[in-house]
Amino acid sequence: MKPFAYARAATVEEAAGLYAAHPGARYLGGGTNLVDLMKLGVEEPAALVDVSRLPLDTVDELPDGSVRVGATVRNSDLAAHPTVRDRYPALSQALLAGASGQLRNAATTGGNLLQRTRCPYFQDTDKPCNKRVPGSGCAARDGAHRDHAVLGHSPQCIATHPSDLAVALAALDARVELYGAGGARTVPAAEFHRLPGDRPEQDTEIRPGELITGVVLPAAPAGLPSLYRKARDRASYAFALASVAAVLGVEGGVVRHVGIAFGALAHRPWRARRAERALLGAAPTTAAFERAADLELAAAEPLRDNAYKVRLARNLAVDALERLAHGSPRTGN
Amino acid sequence: MDSMGSRNDSAGADDGAGRPGNGRGAAPGEPPDPAGGTGPAGRSAARHGTSRPPGRHHSEVTLRVNGTPRTLTVDHRSVLLDVLRERLDLVGAKKGCDHGQCGSCTVLVDGRRVNSCLLPAVALDGCDITTVEGLADGGAPHPLQQAFLDRDAFQCGYCTPGQLCSAVGAVAEAEAGHPSLVTDPGAPSGRPVPLGPDEIRERLSGNLCRCGAYPNIVRAVEDVIR
Amino acid sequence: MADTGTALGAPAERREGRDKVTGSARYAAEQNIPGRVHAWPVAAGITRGTIRAIDTGTALALPGVLAVLTHDDAPRLAPADDPTLAVLQDRRVPHHGWFVALVVAETLEEARAGAAAVRVEYDVEEHDVTLTEDHPGAYTPEQANGGNPAHREQGHPEEAFATADVRVDARYRIPPLHNHPMEPHAATAHRSGGRLLVHDSSQGATTVRATLASLFRLPEDDITVVSEHVGGGFGSKGTPRPHVVLAVMAALRTGRPVTVALPRRLLPDAVGHRAPTLHRFRLGAAADGTLVSSLHEVTTHTSRIKEFVEQAAVPSRIMYAAPHRLTTHRVVPLDVPSPSWMRAPGEAPGMYALESAMDELAVATGLDPVELRIVNEPDTDPDSGKPFSSRHLIECLREGARRFGWAQRDPRPRSRTEGPLLVGTGVASATYPVMVSPARASAHALPDGRFAVRINATDIGTGARTVLAQIAADALGVPLDRVRAEVGSSDLPPAPLAGGSSGTASWGWAVHEACTRLAALLAAHTGPLPDGGLRAHADTAGSADAGSDWARHAFGAHFAEVTVDTVSGEVRVRRLLGVYAAGRILNARTARSQFIGAMTMGLGMALTEGSTMDAASGDFVESDLASYHVPVHADVPDIEAHWIDEDDPHLNPMGSKGIGEIGIVGTAAAIGNAVHHAAGVRYRELPLTPDRVLEGLAGPL
Fold this sequence. Notes:
heterotrimer; B: alpha+beta; Ubiquitin-like (UB roll); 25% helix; C: Aldehyde Oxidoreductase, domain 4; Aldehyde Oxidoreductase, domain 3; seven-stranded mixed β-sheet; 15 helices; globular
């Protein structure tokens, strides 16, 4: 780890100013991934702008029924927040399915979305990786890629995004609030992360110097049954092999609202728009859920060793939708 | 706001400035570095903790560690774990992985359990730190420490300080109404969550134990919350 | 045997417990000696080749960096018996992760930055790191580990198998596994006043001292190696490791006390791994389940610098009676890191294969798996023909079955479901050989009525201090609280390592003998003790290592209940129960913890732990604790461990067998057999992760 300068920002504007004034700066939130990557030599910031104490640490209900989550709200506090638990259970469950109690106490809402892939080749500076060093190659494609993408990958990169939170936000139609030199703007959570294409070094749509200031949860899915289901190699404290966040509103025997997003299948949370379109207006039957999942996953292009993810994702999605349709939202086994 | 650098920022200050010979460090037996730490537990650190004056890459911070304020100049790269172990000679918090993957370094910061290996100390100025050394109340062990002894809840002991701090934090979280992944989604928000074995297991899953003392640890935690 | 008193077998609390729960127990990297500095190794990022050039200038120019050691200028070592210790001696890079430089700096941060700044250029060579059964480089060595012959054959196993009524022919695969003790390997070395003091995270400081003396050409008497508290080892600290050599090199070079604490990610390449094993198992039986032929063929890998042959077929030599038998090992030298010891080497992988094959035979014959094992119980050791000193496998199986509720089991696979979950139960036998080595010990009666025993035993978490005090108190016939046991320093009487489930037997024998002699001295003494007290010494060379006419092994049985989630492919263990016959249990409390702990590691072997050799880089893909999945709390149910009172006069003065490893033996098979019972699918490659499980569930039943 190279020496770096440090400054703590008191306001969002100040943070952006400090960042602009220091080439090679990074924002520091909870640090749970950034410090990890700095120790690995993957990140080598010249300066850290500490945004962890910005006054963005509240969860507020807005007049239009939406809920605004500040970027520095810690993952554990967000998961425990009564409004979130009661109205957006998938969000609470996604947070609780991620990492550990200790990490959730440190990790921030904004930082969680900006965490980098856990691809082992990305994390090892001795190995080729187009995301870390553009043009150096992808060691994962012919290497160990059981954990890697089956949807939307590119010849340059097959990494997945590791966030659980982001998957729930995508399914819930949340929006990400950003602040930077160009002022404030918002981006749909489902489009905040990118597909790798030929620029895998770019994880998200964030612009240089922009800061996540918050996340807005819309009113529409509030209070609808929702859940997050994650499959992994051990019972806790492991990244997903595949996961699904789903919200389902049924009225008069037909689906009136549906949001489905997959985790660990792609370079971003995979919003299952095709599946959703197939379900809207349809009866919430197992057959319909299966058809919808198959429709979505038909686009999958599994690699040598990760075809299981397609079946796993299908199973998780169908199971999640059935639970939501039948009112048994427990997620574990 | 703090300026980029630190309180005593001197423009363009060299990290090695003020140190003897070519920036290659102090000789053994050199007198204590006054910036190496203050306070009663700083004996060893004050003797050989290598600290630089505040500068572009070093800053002065004050941490309240187990009730005692400790002011010291830290390398910005220093994480809390290394400051505790290398500067303050508080070696109870363990380095098992240095990457937030094992929980051995768990301490309480402002009452919340965190992985001290991932927290830059410079970002913790003014924070309250409790390590395993600070759990006991005077001479008597913390009830959980006693329960670990009673239940043989460890073997090699290396994960133990982290398990203890994590369990103290986890019990407080449950009391404050924080759910876990195995909490019934129908349970009322904001109310204390009762901790059965499955809840304890899920909540302590951020603390690896390779000796496999898990069942005994769960019993020890149950003893204390009963 | 001396007066047995009440100390032996008592559930005495571990004596260092308070230090461990208060954080005051210091481990090897926690020796804050004044002036102490830190060193950080640089590991090769290539698989095979030679160093062309190393640029240390950038690193040396960094603040705080004191020295960079490379093969150009590191202290020259005497030839090493263990080639993995010959670090920084030449340009050769035999595998990924080989240490090529060491940066010494004032602080950890500076040492890490220095290591990152070292630039190494290599001449890279072609490499091969992929183990296959038909690898052209495979050969049958003279011996597998532990001095076991690599190949044993009795009767006509091929012919007998071909004509057997019932045949099982199955192949099992176990991936590389990593020990990953929670304390990474670390040493603090300090040269002062002509003496070398080393704190090492080791399972045996006596060997570390002898090795350092040899490598650095120093008199043993000038070296002290302390291993007071050790954060687990599980075999990976059983022999001296490169970190301690590096620490001494750096201390000699800089004149400062130096700590080397290996970063977790460097452990898989640097401190050994359980080698992958490919098993072919053939069992031929009569229709009533009686074995007629047993063939266990193992293929494994080793590195180019060291022949290390995981003795995985060895347990098949003693478990079951069969007139025709074959056990054989083949090894393939590859450009991989050197494999080494991991808890129950040989037995853990071997018994996974054997006990899975026995379960397949039970299904094929329609016999209950417990009864099948009982049917094939041998009268004597089938390999050596020696009688067993004690063998209570049948009792373990029966007692386990009773406690587990085995009789209620519906033997039909996939007969029990709970919603999306398939539920099943399985059983497997366990065994571990009785080993013991000579040791020396002293016993000291103090004038104030207290006693001290001294021996360089190592407490890696087993509770050695506690149980040795119990053995001493028992032999002396005095209350336990009057006896102190000093362990963990090479200044104490020399003793073998904590490994091979032999520590307590080896150390305890010497302690027992010293205390028995001391008791005789005391009995002959009249009046108050002299100021210096009375001392007695013991050396068990010649007795502890004498041959035995008995086949000496511990046995056990494991029972598991699992659920298989048909949606996610996730397997969870609901119940895990072990029953052991391991001689006399010397401390019920710490013994139970060891049994439970080893079963937990077996659970990991079954379900979560697996490492992958990356063909392109020769590196283990799962090199950290986020990707190599050690079981967490949530994976582990309330495990039960029980034992059978076993009185065996052919062991040692305590009547004990080793207990540290048998808990991992067969556990993975019991879990795998339970998965078969639950799902009706036979998985033959570990670990049983959701990808494999789902694939199996999708296939034809």
